[in-house]
From TrEMBL:
Bilayer topology term: Multi-pass membrane protein
Keywords from the UniProt entry: Amino-acid transport, Membrane, Transmembrane, Transmembrane helix, Transport
Taxonomic placement: Eukaryota, Metazoa, Spiralia, Lophotrochozoa, Platyhelminthes
Protein name according to UniProt: Amino acid transporter transmembrane domain-containing protein
Cellular compartment(s): Membrane
Length: 324
């Protein structure tokens, strides 16, 4: 009787255990998706209007989910991972090479964007601490320092070993969103919100904001890092991971963009900056937010380098059979 009771309890608890196991890849995928695009979300809400921005966030999230489902189906059909190898199965050497070159160029651009953000934030933080003016020499020294520091993290063999860093960055994104909503945005929304100055529907701003919306939901090249030798999710679990991660990211972007727009819209402000940190008040809380976001950007670079170096290695392999 006790043995049957134990088995029934284990069978009852197994779905919960499975849910807890899925939390790890969900957090990893969220952290890989959320990035510097969050800083430009208030700018997008200002340029496109509130309703149109929410609409495009939903559209880009839906298209990202559909594209991820297509990649999952392709990799499942050909039983290979990542999807560059599926391109070889379907399109041959040329298809594989084109896919790898595209991924390399795209991820390299992401790394450059992260480095630009890190250089701007770190120079401002150090200058504020040292009470000096930012210089090009200081910017160069900080970039070299961060590069040397990041090399060991970028060379890890298993991206799952960065889970603790993923948890830290995900929690900090929550703190940043909480600060934007309840400290900066909501008080102004309740007290003295200039409703007549707000943009609700402004299609003219889509030209410069569509690339930001599309890049904000990009996670296709990181799909294969959600699996490991110890955890091989099923197709349904992979789709669940993608949906939960992208819906969470869309909600975070929506709240951050809307309340950031509410917090800093003003008739006296002639230019609405694409980097929301440039409009933050000069107080201790804002300084801590800048420092924390700087650290999250530093931690996010190894998560981009991981698929980048794998793709470079696969491209340079002379024999495809060795890569697969």
């Amino acid at each position: 009787m006790p043995a049957k009771l134990i088995r029934s309890i284990n069978q009852y608890l197994y779905p919960q255990d499975e849910i807890f196991i899925l939390i790890r890849p969900i957090i990893t995928l969220i952290n890989n998706t959320v990035g510097v695009a969050a800083l430009a979300m208030p700018f997008c809400f200002h340029q496109c209007g509130i309703l149109l921005s929410f609409l495009f966030l939903g559209i880009t999230a839906a298209f990202s989910i559909m594209s991820c489902d297509a990649l999952i189906d392709i990799c499942s059909t050909h039983r290979v991972l990542p999807f560059e190898h599926a391109c070889f199965k379907a399109l041959g050497h040329m298809g594989k090479s084109l896919a790898e070159l595209s991924v390399i160029c795209l991820l390299f651009g992401y790394v450059v964007g992260y480095y630009v953000t890190i250089a701007d934030l770190s120079t401002g933080v150090v200058s504020q601490i040292a009470v000096t003016m930012p210089t090009h020499q200081l910017r160069f020294i900080l970039l070299v320092t961060f590069t040397v520091t990041l090399v060991p993290l970028c060379l890890v063999s298993k991206v799952q070993s960065l889970l603790r860093l993923n948890v830290f960055t995900s929690l900090f994104y929550g703190v940043v969103t909480f600060h934007m909503i309840f400290i900066l945005g909501l008080p102004r929304l309740i007290s003295n919100m200039p409703w007549e100055e707000m943009n609700w529907w402004k299609p003219a701003g889509l030209i410069e904001c569509i690339p930001i919306f599309l890049a904000s939901m990009f996670c296709q090249t990181q799909l294969h890092i959600t699996s490991s030798k110890s955890f091989q999710p099923t197709l349904s679990n992979m789709r669940l991971i993608v949906r939960v991660a992208l819906i969470t990211v869309a909600i975070v972007y929506g709240f951050f963009g809307f309340f950031g727009y509410v917090a800093f819209i003003s008739s006296k402000r002639t230019i609405f900056s694409g980097n929301v940190f440039l409009m933050y008040p000069d107080d201790l809380r804002s300084f801590c937010i800048r420092v924390g976001f700087l650290l999250t950007n530093i931690v996010s670079i190894p998560l981009i380098i991981y698929p980048l170096r794998q793709t470079v290695y696969n491209l340079l392999c002379q024999k495809v059979s060795r890569c697969i």
